[in-house]
């Protein structure tokens, strides 16, 4: 089995399943994964410098001193460990040993709270104790799947048992403020087969929405708002995501996992309804979600300002995880379209092309004269690390696990969702993919091994891909092109996805982008950045004539991007901005 | 002398001076001031319920217990006391006695810090100790000017002497985080003649801008950003206001006071330059400033979202105070235009027509389906009070002192800046003003008393007032119409300000209002509110045809407003919104 996150059990009710083998071999994503691999050791250095590793060592009795930072800091270590596991590039044993030694005999583990001698679970709305547990479980599952080493899994099991003894219908009434434990418990159930973890996940999913994750008593800030914790409306009743965006999408992901594993179609319908609402009213053109700086929150419907987009990197990663589960559940290509959108335009932009710097906040418009105020302000550019460093290691683990999202398998077929130079296998059906995507839309799938009978090779035709062909025959956009036949090794299927530059417009209820256009080509959203424009223009004064021809040209710029030209304007892929110093940039351009 | 704030000394270099008498007698503002008078006793009840008065009583030894809330809470009491002083409607002695008793022997006074036994001045970036002192001084000056009672002034003097002993070139190096002390010290100097206070104000103005008001050490939040405290760039070098909006405008007000009293033209030029920049790039159509929720801050240039306008009530009040001082300094009618804009469209909207409820945040667009999150969210509507209750008493003191802003005097004339049913006097030149403004543009000034020689009656012709006449003769908009002659009692001067509804557009660099229009009539900015529209429309789907005729009609609605109609749309004055329950509302309307 391909080591990957989110592997439903055999009993889970899903349409598609992860493939047994997937490797990125060449091309665009191979380069990005190589850069990510180079970033991973830097991640360890930064965790060391920030004190995260020190906290665990102190808790383990390997060092002494005071704990550094908030009680969510262990989670950064776990996310980084997960990245290492998927990437397979670093030894893990020393760190896992420290984590194991830091764990209390009763299974509880949170280095800051232990070092400070605080009572566990007493300020769950803000302590992130179960959030850290969730990331520990995900790292443990990753280590087990990727390396077979179950040392960390034993730590996770011990902690999960402690949680199952502590929480639940007859347990503590207060719930964790920051979801992730729900999905993580389902993953631990998948890995261990222990149904207690699935039951606890289901309990956490259904117990939420009654104010029990919310800070008790009066608080005039977000801490007093149940919506901040996705705790205002029970998940089965909710029509929309609201409040803190990362919490909301992580929770929706966990609810989807529970729905899949318990065959709960009511719950699945609820999260799909919320997804559709988000897609239509609360998602930026790049796929980013979470409009508001204040509360790091989803805004009201159609509140999608480019300049003040909060668009937290972790929220985009959460949507990717959610969309992947919905794709497995339904087989609907729109979820794979979403994953493509996010990978290229909401997750990749968060990391620099070189030097492993990260955006926490992903603005869609850096204004002329923009000034940075707080540490995570994108006006400062990408940074190596943050005081609250949730995003960098989240990017690392996501890029390290990228192959898992390329394809799925069914009993008699292979579905290719993302196009990259890669080698894929579902059972005895193995295919090599060759492509220069996202720069060119030609994708060649060469059969390496095939079963004796008829099988189906399904190729996602993105919603944006008009006039696509498979083996020169027209296929329908927004669906899968399905080639069903007996394959022989060496057989080729050639997909052509024409990539003319195209104009995007927003919903007319979005104020700040009304009368504007954004430009995309293939899967990439483009942006104007100051260095590419005529000298001395103010970026905010530029207009794009929607009737003018847009031409594409492959260049050596920024690692070999295709640039677009429209009259005097030059556009680069949004993901590549802010890699030549800090300059004004905008995705949405006033038409005229 | 008319009891009023901001009374420059005889030595101050100003063009205009406060009048010796000003009363609002009839009409629009008389009604609003009566409502404010009715609100003032409720303010005391709310201060009592919130614990502000309790804190002072505990510090005074009149009660026991723990202090409630943050150390800025005394300031709410002082602002309320200032309102009472200007209004003259309530006895003050008991409260002043408590405040006097709470003061330490050395002059220091902050009830929360004293009750909690904290060391003064040790966390000035966030303690608001000098902020509270400033509001105390303003209240003391108001009480002295309005009632002649100097009991509170003695408290202020004792505290100011303590400050002068503690701070200054050879004193503590850390500065207060939240300006207001600068202007308040100048006012105390004006009232006492003690130049030490002016010198200390000047010191505070010039010492800022070098990181000394900023929280020491690293902090990733706004606390670590010098701009948050107007502490990044020295005032003489700054081109723009930035950071926390209330802090910035209060500081600019204090700098202007210092410039006026020290004849510092370089400083005056600097604040005028910053004012012009704010006016052009950082001010909403209503006059509101401070775009950002995050950090309650000015945004980047042209960052002016209607839906997420923070537009704190206190920031608008600060701009009014600043503009008043610039008006006195320069005699430029644009500053009086600004005051008109703010009074009707940025300060008045913050208070309900009945029941004394207040907005802290003044949105320009309540979206369909808007949800409140934090206490001050305007989606909840106006509130009686807030956990951080800076705004309500700030509105109270501003409306109570409104007559002070109506007119100014010079050696040989009277300048009328704001039109209200009123009686005004500068020296021996007394005039009664009769008008139905802002509903009607006819203003009749009747001379009640005049000196023997020639004097000048100057009438502000707002920038918006095309085709204005004085005694049927055309006059120029954006200036004063000056009638210079020998006046006799009974003489009338009739100003006509035609008020056709007019379309406003924003700077093209403001994304969220590009392609939109706002409607104004006379001094009032109008808004669409859901209850006035056709049934079942979604407010965000409405368009306004800029070529369609807009008609005005006086009604009995909402206290007797003039409503505007354009095709199917009905508009009400923005200040009157959210007085019929909570409904969608917008000021900027997509044109089309």
Automatic annotation (TrEMBL), chains A, B:
<dbReference type="Pfam" id="PF20736">
    <property type="entry name" value="Glyco_hydro127M"/>
</dbReference>
<feature type="domain" description="Non-reducing end beta-L-arabinofuranosidase-like GH127 C-terminal">
    <location>
        <begin position="501"/>
        <end position="590"/>
    </location>
</feature>
<feature type="domain" description="Non-reducing end beta-L-arabinofuranosidase-like GH127 middle">
    <location>
        <begin position="414"/>
        <end position="499"/>
    </location>
</feature>
<dbReference type="InterPro" id="IPR049046">
    <property type="entry name" value="Beta-AFase-like_GH127_middle"/>
</dbReference>
<keyword id="KW-0378">Hydrolase</keyword>
<dbReference type="InterPro" id="IPR049174">
    <property type="entry name" value="Beta-AFase-like"/>
</dbReference>
<dbReference type="InterPro" id="IPR008928">
    <property type="entry name" value="6-hairpin_glycosidase_sf"/>
</dbReference>
<feature type="domain" description="Non-reducing end beta-L-arabinofuranosidase-like GH127 catalytic">
    <location>
        <begin position="23"/>
        <end position="403"/>
    </location>
</feature>
<dbReference type="Pfam" id="PF07944">
    <property type="entry name" value="Beta-AFase-like_GH127_cat"/>
</dbReference>
<protein>
    <submittedName>
        <fullName>Glycoside hydrolase family 127 protein</fullName>
    </submittedName>
</protein>
<dbReference type="InterPro" id="IPR012878">
    <property type="entry name" value="Beta-AFase-like_GH127_cat"/>
</dbReference>
<dbReference type="GO" id="GO:0005975">
    <property type="term" value="P:carbohydrate metabolic process"/>
</dbReference>
<dbReference type="Pfam" id="PF20737">
    <property type="entry name" value="Glyco_hydro127C"/>
</dbReference>
<dbReference type="GO" id="GO:0016787">
    <property type="term" value="F:hydrolase activity"/>
</dbReference>
<dbReference type="InterPro" id="IPR049049">
    <property type="entry name" value="Beta-AFase-like_GH127_C"/>
</dbReference>
